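Open question from group meeting: does this chain pack into something compact, or does most of it stay loose? Before anyone orders reagents, we agreed to write out a predicted structure and look at it together. Recording both the input and the output here so the notebook holds the full record.
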Amino acid sequence: MSRSPVEIPEEYGLFIDGEWVDASSGETFETIDPASEEVVATVAAANADDVDAAVSNAADALDEWRSVPGRERGRILMDVADAIREDADRLAWIETVDNGKPLSQAKTDVLRCGEYVAYYAGMADKIEGESIPMSEGYVDYTVHEPLGVTGHIIPWNFPVGILGRGLAPALAAGNTVVAKPAEQTPLSALEIGALAVEAGLPAGVFNVVPGFGPDAGEPLVRHDDVAQVTFTGSVPTGRLVGKAAIEGLKPVHLELGGKNPNVVYPDADLDRAVESTVKSIFSRNAGQVCSSGSRLLLHEDVHDEFLDRLLTAVDDLSIAPGVEDPDVAAITSKEQFDSIMEYIEIGREEAGEPLIGGEAVDRTGYFIEPTIFDGVEMDMRIAREEIFGPVLSVLTFSDEREAIEIANDVDYGLVSGIFTSDIGRAHRFAREVDAGGVYINEWFSSGIEAPFGGYKDSGLGRAKGLAALEEYTQTKNVCARID
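Structure tokens returned:
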């Protein structure tokens, strides 16, 4: 692209066994810059034969990689982490034109990918078993072993960040990886695949097969030599992935959707609560975040004041292409743009005109104004269904019990948040809310060290932190009679 300060290849192949290769069918697809609607690159489209080749290479590389001492695996992964961080500016630009998000957020995601790899590099020689007390005459202990070839299906909203989140613990534990990035945003996974091999990761340990779900994703999940599957995406697709994995008797990690409650009490620091609300649903990736604060629950005594402050803050947000680093950038795809606009019309029918926003921005690209609906009730679709865009539903409550009832009255249970100066109230909320994560007095407050995952329809398993290593290891028990 002429405006790019970095050179983006016009064509990308598959990345298998440390090399760029064409798809066996010769088929390709185009990835589109959502801010300009221009083609960024043409990408090889993998099919079942290509997936089989990638898995075969990953299986061939497995014995050698799992036999590398943990300390050495960690050193190699630390070199990969350094390479990612050193190349952050270039990778961030590619991520922005491929995904649409603001440039500073793309760079944060790239650096976070490097941090994941560095964090788990430090864990590679600390995956320890336990000594189990037995009766006299026996010694019993456990060891945690890699599962084998792991298949990773990466979503389009955080392509580089979620790639790193699953890739790093899998490799640290001694597994090999085949990743299928979303067809909307395949470039960062391909770039990091090549970068990792340049930094010293052995060929075949990490392979990337871009393509479409039925052609590449399903064959990856169902492949007999794939020992574990990690999927991030929608609930309907997650159910299909989970069913296919279980049919193959392989463990599956599913991180799915959310309709997350953000609860604000009158005793909260309202400036901080407003700032976090804006970040949770509008300025972080235009609300295309499974852990967005898409339901705002306001105590009746602070409803009017809070909304006045929130509307002022939202009105000041800039909307522009991601390369200009605005507050709110483009929606990642035309398909998602259309879906959000449909939900906005549903919101108008259910709750009336939005307090602000509600329109597509009159410019080239997939831009939508930050939108707030007030007077939302829990029987409305905009209160119950994941919109996955810059659309906020505002509900009102009168006491703690009602707040918990509203918070829990959805099929999802990914994250939740509360803003209050009453620490007892905050921890009562944390105890009673059905969610895998609880933010207190700041949205998105946890880090890579903390486990992340959902209750109910929000998924199975945990990413991040030490808990993620359990997703990529299996426990072997050894019992010896010594008398």
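Observations to bring back to the group:
The CA atoms of residues 117 and 168 lie 5 Å apart.
The chain has a mean pLDDT of 97.
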